[in-house]
Amino acid sequence: MNLAWAIPAAWLPLLALIAVAAALWVRRHYLSTEPPAPPGVRRLLTGLRTAAILLLLAAIAGPRLQRSGDAVLPPEAVVVVEDSASMGLRDGPDEPDRWRQAQVWAAQVESLLASREPPVKTTVLRGNGLEATRNLADAPGTPPAAVGTDLGRLAAVTAHAWSARNLRALFVVTDGQETQAAAEGPVAPADGALPVLIGVGDPVGPADLEILDVRYPESAFVGDQIVVEAVVGLRGLPRRDGLRLRLALVQGADTLAAVTVPAGPDDPTLRADLAFVPRAPGLQVARLHVAPLVNERYLANNEVSLAVAVRQDREKLLLITGRPDWNVRMFAQAAALERRLSLDVVHPGERGPVLDGEAWTPPRGAAAWLAWDGVVLLGETPPPFAFDAAGLAEAVTGGLGLLVVGSGEGSLPPALADLLPVVREGFRDVAGGGLQLRREQAGHSLLSGLPADAASWSWLPPLDSVAAARARPEAKVLLTISGPDGAVRAPLLALGAAGEGTVAWLGTGDLWTLAFWQPPASAGEVPEHPVRRLVRNLLVWTAAGDELGGVTLAGHRTLYREGEAIRMETQVRGLRGEGEAGAVALELREDALSATPRTFTPSAVPGEVGRGRVTLPPQAPGRYTIRPVAAGTDSALGPAREFVVVAARPEEAQVRQDRRRLRALAAAWGGHYVDGHAAGADRALAAVLEAADWTATTSERRTEVRLVHGWLLIAVATLLLGAEWAIRRWRGML
Question: The pTM is what?
Answer without folding.
Answer: 0.48
